[in-house]
C-alpha cells in the first residue's frame, strides 16, 4: 500500500511538471486535477479550479460530452479562457480515463504560439478575403446571364442541324463547353457563399464531381489524369456542401502540387458497414461512406504522417500549414475521420475520408 502511494505521488509530481497543459475531469464534467503549466497560463490558484465545472476553462461547450461519446479527441483547435478573460488558442487532445469503467477524461493541450504571431498578419487579410469572395460571386453572376443566352441559342442551333455533318459536331462541342462553363460558374457561386454549417442530404459522388469541376483547369494544365472509381447507388450523406467541397478541393490541389511533372489522381468511393463494439446483440451498425484520393506524387515521409494535420505544419517552402488542419476540423464537424497513408518519398500518397451515413437498428 505504501509503495502504491509512493508511485501515485510520483505520477502526480510528473504530471505537475509536464511542459503541457494537463487537466482531468470526473464523470460529472468537474475539474479533478490540473498541473502547474495550466495554472500559470490561466492565472488561477489550484483550489480555484478543482471541483469547478470545466466550462470555467473551455469556451466551447459540448467537448466533454463529445469525448465521452467518442472516447477520443485528437489535434482539436479550441480556446482556453484565463482568469482575466483572455483567450488562449490551444491544440487539444483527450482520452477517457478507465478502470473497470469510465472514471473521467484526460485533456492534454499545448498553446499555439505561432498563432499569436500569424494572427497579426492573418486577421487584416480576412476583410480582403471577404471582399474577394463577394467579387467572385458578383463576377460569376455576371457571367451566368450571358452564358445562359449562349447555351440556349447553341441548343436551338443543334436541334436544327443535320446529325453527322461537321457543323453539327462543332455545335455539339460548343454546347458541351458551355455546359461545363455553366457547371463551373454554378459551383463557384456555391463555393463563394461563406455560410455556417448547414447540413443537407447529398450524393457524395456528385459532390466530388462538383469539386473536380472547380479544380479541373488547374489539373489539366498540370498534366494530371483523373480516374473515378465510384461505387454506385451509395446512400446519401448529411453534408455542409461549401465546407466539404473546400476539403475535396484542398486535397486535389495538394495532389497537383505533389506532382509537378504530371501524374494521376484516383478517386474512389465505397460503402462501409461495421458492428459497433458492445452493441452487436442490438444489431447496431456503424455505416460510413469512404472516399479515397490517391495520387502518384512525391509522397509523404512516414515520420510526418502523424503531423500533417497539425496547424502550421508544412514541408513546403511557401506553405501556410493551415489547409489540412482546416480540412481535419471540417471532417470532424461532420462526425467523420480523415487520415493519410504513404509508403514514403517518391511513392505517392492517399487521403482517406470516412463520413457517417447513420446508425441503424435491425428490425425484429
Structure description:
It is a single chain. With 364 residues, the protein is α+β, with helices and mostly antiparallel strands. The protein has three domains: 2-111, Beta-Lactamase (2-Layer Sandwich), CATH 3.30.450; 114-194, Helix Hairpins (Orthogonal Bundle); 197-364, Heat Shock Protein 90 (2-Layer Sandwich), CATH 3.30.565. The protein is 43% helix and 27% strand. It contains nine helices and twelve strands. The chain has helices at residues 2-17, 36-42, 46-49, 63-70, 113-160, 166-192, 204-221, 241-257, 323-333; strands spanning 21-26, 31-34, 72-81, 87-98, 102-111, 200-202, 224-230, 237-239, 263-275, 284-295, 337-341, 349-361. Strands 2-1-5-4-3 form a five-stranded antiparallel sheet, sandwiched between helices. Strands 7-9-10-12-11 form a five-stranded mixed sheet. It has a two-stranded antiparallel ribbon with strand order 6-8. The relative contact order is 0.08.
Amino acid at each position: 500500500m505504501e509503495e502504491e502511494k509512493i508511485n501515485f505521488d510520483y505520477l502526480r509530481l510528473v504530471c505537475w511538471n509536464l511542459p503541457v497543459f494537463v487537466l482531468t475531469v470526473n464523470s460529472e464534467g468537474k475539474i479533478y486535477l490540473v498541473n502547474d503549466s495550466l495554472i500559470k497560463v490561466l492565472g488561477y490558484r489550484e483550489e480555484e479550479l478543482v471541483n469547478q465545472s470545466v466550462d470555467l476553462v473551455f469556451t466551447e461547450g459540448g467537448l466533454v460530452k463529445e469525448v465521452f461519446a467518442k472516447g477520443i479527441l485528437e489535434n482539436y483547435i479550441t480556446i482556453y479562457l484565463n482568469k482575466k478573460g483572455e483567450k488562449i488558442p490551444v491544440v487539444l487532445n483527450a482520452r477517457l480515463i478507465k478502470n473497470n469503467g469510465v472514471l473521467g477524461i484526460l485533456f492534454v493541450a499545448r498553446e499555439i504560439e505561432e498563432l499569436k504571431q500569424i494572427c497579426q498578419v492573418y486577421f487584416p487579410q480576412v476583410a480582403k478575403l471577404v471582399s474577394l469572395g463577394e467579387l467572385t460571386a458578383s463576377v460569376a453572376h455576371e457571367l451566368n446571364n450571358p452564358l445562359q443566352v449562349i447555351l440556349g441559342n447553341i441548343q436551338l442551333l443543334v436541334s436544327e442541324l443535320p446529325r453527322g455533318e461537321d457543323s453539327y459536331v462543332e455545335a455539339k462541342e460548343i454546347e458541351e463547353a458551355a455546359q461545363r462553363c455553366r457547371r463551373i460558374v454554378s459551383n463557384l457561386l456555391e463555393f463563394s457563399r461563406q455560410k455556417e454549417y448547414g447540413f443537407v442530404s447529398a450524393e457524395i459522388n456528385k459532390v466530388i464531381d462538383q469539386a473536380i469541376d472547380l479544380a479541373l483547369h488547374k489539373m489539366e494544365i498540370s498534366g494530371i489524369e483523373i480516374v473515378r472509381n465510384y461505387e454506385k447507388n451509395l446512400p446519401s450523406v448529411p453534408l455542409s456542401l461549401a465546407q466539404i467541397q473546400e476539403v475535396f478541393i484542398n486535397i486535389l490541389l495538394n495532389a497537383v502540387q505533389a506532382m509537378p511533372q504530371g501524374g494521376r489522381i484516383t478517386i474512389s468511393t465505397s460503402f462501409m458497414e461495421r458492428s459497433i463494439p458492445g452493441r452487436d446483440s442490438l444489431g447496431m451498425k456503424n455505416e460510413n461512406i469512404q472516399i479515397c484520393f490517391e495520387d502518384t506524387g512525391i509522397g509523404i515521409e512516414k515520420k510526418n504522417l502523424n503531423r500533417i494535420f497539425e496547424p502550421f505544419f508544412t514541408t513546403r517552402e511557401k506553405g501556410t500549414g493551415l489547409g489540412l488542419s482546416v480540412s481535419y476540423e471540417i471532417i470532424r464537424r461532420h462526425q467523420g475521420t480523415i487520415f493519410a497513408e504513404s509508403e514514403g518519398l517518391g511513392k505517392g500518397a492517399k487521403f482517406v475520408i470516412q463520413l457517417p451515413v447513420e446508425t441503424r437498428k435491425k428490425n425484429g
